[in-house]
Amino acid sequence: MIPAQIFNQINDKCTEGLALALASNDDGAVMEFQWCNKAFTKIIGYEAAEVVGQRGTILVGPDLEQGIHLYIIEKLMNWENFSTKALNNRKNGEVYWQRMSWVHLSDPETGNRWWLCSIVELEQGGAEPAKRAMKDPAISDQESYARVVEKVHRLEKENTRLHQLAKSVAKDANEDALTGLSNRRHFEVELKTWIENLKQHGTEFAVLYIDLDRFKFVNDTLGHDAGDQLLVSVAKMLRDLTDASDLVARLGGDEFVILRPLGKSALNLSNLADEIVQRMQVPFTCDGKSTACSASVGVAIANANMKDPEQVVADSDAALYHAKSQGKGRWSFFTEEMHANSIATKQLASDLLLACERREFIPYFHPLIDATTGRIACAEMLVRWSNPNKGILAPAEFLDTAANMGILKRIDEIVFASLNGALSHFDETGVDLPRVAVNVSAARLADPTFIHDIKSSGINPARLTVEILESVYLDRMGDVVRWTIDELDELGVTVAIDDFGTGHASVRGLLEIRPAILKIDRQFIQPVVADASVRPLVASIIGIGKSLGMRVVAEGVESEEHARIVSEMGCDYLQGFYFGKPMSEEDLRNKLIETGGKFWSHGPCAGDRARGVGRAV
Fold this sequence. Notes:
- This protein is α/β, with parallel strands linked by helices.
- Helix content is 44%, strand content 22%.
- The protein has an eight-stranded mixed β-barrel, surrounded by five helices. Strands 2-1-5-4-3 form a five-stranded antiparallel β-sheet, with helices on both faces. Strands 7-8-6-11-12 form a five-stranded mixed β-sheet, with helices on both faces.
């Protein structure tokens, strides 16, 4: 194999213009250029982007003799190798002498037919001596014969050289420059051949789709050079584990794929997938630093009974997704259940796009109660999908798919746009809803347009709380997230950390963010009634928040006893089904009118504990 660095030097330093054109099987004169080197573009005056995709007529200038033009067409049509010397024009019209050679190539694997075109710029009048020599009657038959023999030998050597160069170019075009494996283009070409063999001869095969689970972490912590070394190591490992009959390719990034003939048993597939997963469990070391980077594998089989064998790669990808959803660092076979789920997911994705166009996403509100007064202090806004066929759908039924589609921002915008109007409706009705809270992912915090959306919404920032989700990222906060939080603070928006205690957010993260609100996850609050042993842990979390000057919210309050206990332990606010489930804007408005905004009357003990009535959440 020629190293990429050497091949690149050939491309840079070769003075002979070279280009490869894919030709029609029916007519050799019908072609389309696929590649050219720098010398080619320098000689003809066109950029490479102007050459690739063009027909051979781009090389025909206005000063090219018509007879030579017809001669070229005739030779190309008949698939004959030939060479011409003539005056021609560059792109800008400049006239120059050139030698143009065409060599016919063929790909035995695909049957494609190619032309290798060579152009050399000659010195002024470079073609004239040859013409005069041909016309000189003094040249003897013996001399003529010697010249012909010499010319034949020269052309044979030239053809051999050009064939070798073309093979090198084709090989480079099919290989991944970093790993030496097949690249995506070559994989797609080979896949078509394997599918055609399946249809014609019943030759079944399997696809193993491999994805590294923590590749981005390796790049971020050890650097991109380490990431490249890891990819090279994985490529070597895959070569060691596969047979000569297998095709191993890198599709790009940290994605690899293997095509393997099925043979008599699927056992070799499971053994291969298992071996890949096991070897990737071994820590990766670079420059004395070690890190873990597991891999997940999806396996699908293309068999003779498939209606659509072209679906096999998508099936292996679905199996890979299933393996990752089960905890990563494992492999999974594609099943009919996955097929059904895949169809359902595609339908859901289509429905979600239509729902965005129709703006079918609406806000629901979950009350948050002041532990001292028992009155509503805030309402957390939660998204619901008002599906015309299925009714109101909870986030669990569509948010994961929306996230994979990359349309969460669009859904956020639709719901957020309705928030100012909802607050106005509450105010016009005369009910008191002091604040609303919205959940924001770490990815949304990193979106520079988030602050703009708040400013343009018309919402009074003093009535808005932003609850930060996915706080696992807070310990590695980027500059954009830091800027967003600073901007929220400057606007007067209250920042809250949601679901604290689940192991995602650290105390160090709290010190850096300095949120005004700390919400204790429901899994800590719900057991406090039946199991007094968990109360010291809850008290410790409350103590952390209080020591940092934060107000504390207890989530998951489902009974009067829950409310009383956590109030006495020091929680400032209460939220849970005891005060009502998430409800529509109309239902919350009716509830506030009915109750006068008071959801709970706490016992006498709580009154001696709480302070800060009327503080905003």
